[in-house]
Amino acid sequence: MPEGHSVHRIARQFDRNFVGRTVTASSPQGRFAEGASVLDGREVVSARAVGKQMFLEFDGDLWLRVHLGLYGAWDFAGEILVDPTIASANGRMGQTNQRGTDLDAAGDVVLDADGENSLASIGAPRRARGRVRMSEQTHGLGGDTEEWPPPVVGQVRLRLLSAETCADLRGPTACQLQTPDEVAAAIAKLGPDPLVDDAAAGEERFTATVRRKPTSIGLLLMDQGVVSGIGNVYRAELLYRALLDPHTPGKLVPEEIVRDIWRDWSRLLVIGVETGQMMTMDDLDSEAYRRAMASRDDRHWVYHRAGLPCRVCGTEIVVEEMAARKLYWCPSCQK
DNA sequence: CATCGATGTTGAG
DNA sequence: TCAACCTCGATGG
């Protein structure tokens, strides 16, 4: 998936391009026909993201909850204006982590070959289907000759169409209408999200929870009830950056390290939302950094690097199954 | 062209 | 613990 950063980007796109507009709703695929008919003709009132879930509010106290799951995605088309908070492809970094390296001056970020950074498609890593029409404030590359509304391609669970904008949802794990109470209940089950919760309160909640549990920190970071928005990539990278063995029970992780992990996640999430990429590396030597950023499969410290030498100590990165997910880590750096 | 796997979650057994 | 969900790019023949 789409870890937390993608969902926040999607919510901002809805905020910028759908809120305040009336939509025609349909389910070309048919699997959300009933829900679409309820949404049809309503105005979009607000959009919010919490962790990996997005909540879209419609007039009449009606909410749509969407979870993209493993391969869901939203495709945007039409006169999509770029939310200024996600417009930049240039990441700003400036921080240190447990490794003690200075995370600074990322320089130009190479755009994702897989379109993750695309303005037209956000979600599972795949090429954009949507077309974003040119306008003075738009970054899109499309011409003005496309059909309107755009032809439906493939399996579209839900299409939301305003006069100028179109959003197609495909492959979600959850797409469900909810009452305000149900939305509140869904959010209440989630751990703190750095972009939703107050920084200090979120840190306290996360720290207290982790320090109470015998469960391994590797599992805790993936538990959406402990902290929202972290997925398999961010988990591996956060643990590497903290130089922490993923098997360490939560209650045995030093409190300061737990707090560092929360703060590191907060920073990485902000960078991810701004750039549309899961930026987790810092400034090795610039040549290695540039190479890592240019290559889709080689831009992380440990994720997807099983058998390759650790970028710092040269030890082979290992992969193991943890709760049916691949866990990558450096057995030498992470103690 | 067939098969696999993936940034995820749920629910059955 | 594991299959199912549901989509599609990558991989291999």
SSE blueprint and pairings:
Layout: H1 4-17, E1 24-26, H2 33-39, E2 44-50, E3 53-58, E4 62-67, E5 73-78, E6 94-96, E7 102-104, E8 121-123, E9 158-161, E10 165-170, E11 174-178, H3 180-188, H4 199-210, H5 217-220, H6 232-241, H7 255-275, H8 286-294, E12 318-322, E13 325-329
Antiparallel strand pairs: 1-9, 2-3, 3-4, 4-11, 5-8, 5-10, 6-7, 9-10, 12-13
Helix pairs in contact: 1-7, 4-7, 6-7
The structure holds a DNA duplex (13 and 13 nucleotides).
Describe this protein's structure:
With 335 residues, the chain is of the alpha+beta class. The protein has 2 domains: 4-83 and 121-184, Alpha-Beta Barrel (N-terminal domain of MutM-like DNA repair proteins), CATH 3.20.190; 191-329, Helicase, Ruva Protein, domain 3 (Orthogonal Bundle). It is 26% helix and 19% strand. The chain has helices at 4-17, 33-39, 180-188, 199-210, 217-220, 232-241, 255-275, 286-294, and strands at 24-26, 44-50, 53-58, 62-67, 73-78, 94-96, 102-104, 121-123, 158-161, 165-170, 174-178, 318-322, 325-329. It has a 5-stranded antiparallel beta sheet. The longest helix is centred in the last third of the chain and has 21 residues, at 255-275. The protein is globular and about 55 Å long.
Query: Termini separation (Å)?
Result: 28 Å
What is the CATH superfamily of the largest domain? MutM-like, N-terminal
Q: How many structural domains? A: 2
Strand percentage? 15-25%
Structural class: alpha+beta
Number of strands: 13
Compute the gyration radius: what is it? 20 Å
Mean pLDDT: 85
Could you spell the SSE succession in H and E letters?
Answer: HEHEEEEEEEEEEHHHHHHEE
For the largest sheet, list the strands in their spatial order.
1-9-10-5-8
Determine and state the CATH class of the largest domain.
Answer: Alpha Beta
Contiguous uncertain segments of 5+ residues: 88-116, 133-143
Q: What is the helix content?
A: 25-40%
The largest β sheet comes out as: 5 strands, antiparallel
Individual helix count? 8
In the CATH hierarchy, what is the architecture of the largest domain at level 2?
Alpha-Beta Barrel
| Dominant shape | globular
